[in-house]
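User: For a benchmark we're assembling, each entry needs the component sequences followed by a predicted structure for the full assembly. Here are entry 17's components. Please fill in the structure.
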Amino acid sequence: MPYLNRRRFLTVAGLPVVFAARLPAGIGLLGLETEDPLPGKHPDLTILNDRPVNAETPPHLLDQRITGADRLFVRNNGIAPASPPADPSAWELRIAGEAVPEPVVFTLAELKQRFEHHTYQLTLECGGNGRKEFSPPASGNQWSTGAVGCPEWTGVRLRDVLEAANFDRKKAVYVGYYGRDTHLSGDPDKVVISRGVPIAKALEDETLIAWNMNGQPLPHLNGYPLRLLASGYPASVSGKWLSEIAVRDRVHDGEKMGGASYRVPCKPVAPGAEVDDEDMCIIEEMPVKSLLTSPKTGAILSDTKTLPIAGHAWCGSGAVSKVDYSIDFGSTWQACALTKPANRYAWQHFSAQIEFPQEGYYEIWARATDDQGRAQPMVLPNWNPRGYLNNACHRIAIKVV
Amino acid sequence: MPYLNRRRFLTVAGLPVVFAARLPAGIGLLGLETEDPLPGKHPDLTILNDRPVNAETPPHLLDQRITGADRLFVRNNGIAPASPPADPSAWELRIAGEAVPEPVVFTLAELKQRFEHHTYQLTLECGGNGRKEFSPPASGNQWSTGAVGCPEWTGVRLRDVLEAANFDRKKAVYVGYYGRDTHLSGDPDKVVISRGVPIAKALEDETLIAWNMNGQPLPHLNGYPLRLLASGYPASVSGKWLSEIAVRDRVHDGEKMGGASYRVPCKPVAPGAEVDDEDMCIIEEMPVKSLLTSPKTGAILSDTKTLPIAGHAWCGSGAVSKVDYSIDFGSTWQACALTKPANRYAWQHFSAQIEFPQEGYYEIWARATDDQGRAQPMVLPNWNPRGYLNNACHRIAIKVV
Amino acid sequence: MRSLRHFLLLLFLVVVLVQACSTDEAPSAPPPRRENIVDGLDSLTGLIAQGDYRLVKGNCLACHSAKLITQNRATREGWLDMIHWMQETQGLPDLGKNEGPIVDYLATYYAPEETGRRPPLDSVEWYILSAAGGQSSAER
Amino acid sequence: MRSLRHFLLLLFLVVVLVQACSTDEAPSAPPPRRENIVDGLDSLTGLIAQGDYRLVKGNCLACHSAKLITQNRATREGWLDMIHWMQETQGLPDLGKNEGPIVDYLATYYAPEETGRRPPLDSVEWYILSAAGGQSSAER
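Assistant: Structure for entry 17:
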């Protein structure tokens, strides 16, 4: 019988439990723990779920140009490895799959020693960021705007490693990853999540096997000691606690590649529609988006009618070509200043100085447009069953008194 | 004691009536009548209220370039005169007020004979058109999109008549109207509504005292035999069953000129805010707006991916400079063809041919922009307590199968 | 004045009783519209037929249609504001002890809904549109 | 297997009773978090403390946090779909006779809300921002 500590007994005691007696060892009733579920993270992150750990970052905490490690959101599908590896340099990454002649294993030390190091600032955004606004509602973590960040990542190119494993360019269609997190059920044979990207994306310069974030080892909750990074796609393709890359001769069919997971209807559907699995398509490039990070929403201006605003804008491919803001609910728009990205897939920074015409309540809406002329919509874009890809304009509330 | 017919007895009988015994003569319990509340109107108008009569027109019924008399919405504040005048030519209009040396009375026959006739196509839109979308909700008739129309009106210029009454240009600030409708309470001393416009608006070429709509006498519900028309302002300034024009030396202070009636906060307020009367300002020019009148929403295209669309666009001053449509919730917009107005204050007609990229559910959004660069917002614009001036984009639903 | 009103009320009730017993209706005449409940709504007014809806029928519908109620949504405070506005400007008398139950009914069955800055398109009636020509071509 | 489970359940209850009577807690230790209701919510889980919320506590929280429930909204059918998905892919056992009451609870207290294509900005926490410099300047 599993060990049950006193606190757990007391809280279990009053319930009509049919399940508790079957609890596997180490699994308690949740919501009853007192430990910090977010070690190393900023205390103002919003915890959406503590098992698995999912937490997002309020917009004003993302004001930094390079997102701090303590501020990057956490979206775990399973349970992170219980403790960091004793010797991270011995961490093993296996390269396998139909398009590799035979599996090859590299330790983290070997990866660092053998391949050229690269550092890029790469945007990471959960495919479900913005799900909270879906109507009819979509099930899953109800992300508001904060499942996004843009730290600097250091590692080796996936391409270099696959080439060292002598992968077959003609056969290769997709890569899929595996990691060392544990399924929520505790079953060690269940894969938590195993997703990936088309081979062309895998071979891009910026697709990394990374061990450092902002010059420091990855935070434990974000994949320590090793993870994949394929920016521009939903963050779920960037596997954490990375232990294997499979170079596939077909579209990868790992856990959460099928069904409604990280897939949207191939054709637009009416809100609330039921969609068969066969009519769902895998999400690839994320749409253009922006976030107002300064000021924090709710600012009351009492001694001025002038307000500097700032934030970031990004998109899944190409670049953001402009950002505009509106204080009249989109009747008129004014241009913001916009920086070039530090590198491809890094978010860009916008800023403007707003002169309010008179006192009153205002909403400031920001709207980014990509280099294909596609702008953020002001309303929820195409509805989909799981609530992905909501890139509607971000907005904040301001009072001039 | 008032006369109560049998039907009224039966329906009153079962109720816990505290009020019925005090019913004035001629006033029954409403919702119990069987007569047509909309004589002369298209049967598909939507009745919002039958006492006072308020009815709006579904978008597809407004597809005509010149709105038919049977399709113009009805927004009455009181009860229309019980029966048309026996001799309309003897209908009297009095010109009075502080800025008129002494009151002058013209019969309708005199007006027709003495002054030059003018015909203009003039848009008439209720200030509360679109109120239904307000959130938090605003009280009053819950107009959807159909409290608008654009018939051709024939009459004389208000300016010519005021000049004939020798009004004082230096003293004149505002005109106010009075009409021959009856207050809901039945009290003959209560004024139903008495609004008006600034003198500059009153003196415009297109401000008419009109007796004809589309070459025929006005419909009874729309003001027969005589009404005011000051297009571009909320329709409530265009008084019906017109019996008097007061040329005022101050802003007119008639019924429904004050309080929250046809007024919005002078400064923008947060949704749901309480606003003191002294902080409310009279609505003047209506904002830019458009309506998709073809096809009717809900069209299923089974044998084509091509769809012609059409509609009208208008604004309270100046002209509409462009209309665009979007089928991706405003991420991208395409230009429509747009006609010039028949005359100032006439709505303009837009059209386009949509090629849908694939099967699926689509919403077609139309967005007009005025010659000042102000576009319709995609979302509810500034909230106000009574729900006026909602000019958010109109949209229809389409399926390509 | 008070006794006159009592007299009238009494007279009224007598007439109701007399009428209720009379059978002078021609057999071929359409039956009078009787109060009944269809799909949870009072068939004569469209009011939600729960709680004190009869108080609303008795006190509100002399001056305006029930549609002015059924198309609106408001909080308790909002409905009370509307009643007070009608009393101040439209001649509605004091509702006495009925005011509480009436406002309760309105705030319960006609409460505000949250629709955001853009409500969904709902209640779309779908129909087949042929490529050969829309319904609008004849009208323009 | 069945009798083993019965034995474990019995053992479990015995231990609960023994623990409930024990007083070996140091007096200075923080009091254990007891089940109670604050503002209508179960203080330990945040679940709305009405109806069969204890069934939800007992059957759902072994594998995931109550937050996965409290942040979601769905129809009865939607909640049932989620339960079936957990059973098919996540190892959730059959809930037996508890399934009905659990789904009823979820569909009642965590029903979908209509927010349209753009929800309102709500729960804004207002604060004074001085012209001298925003809070962001230090961070950028």
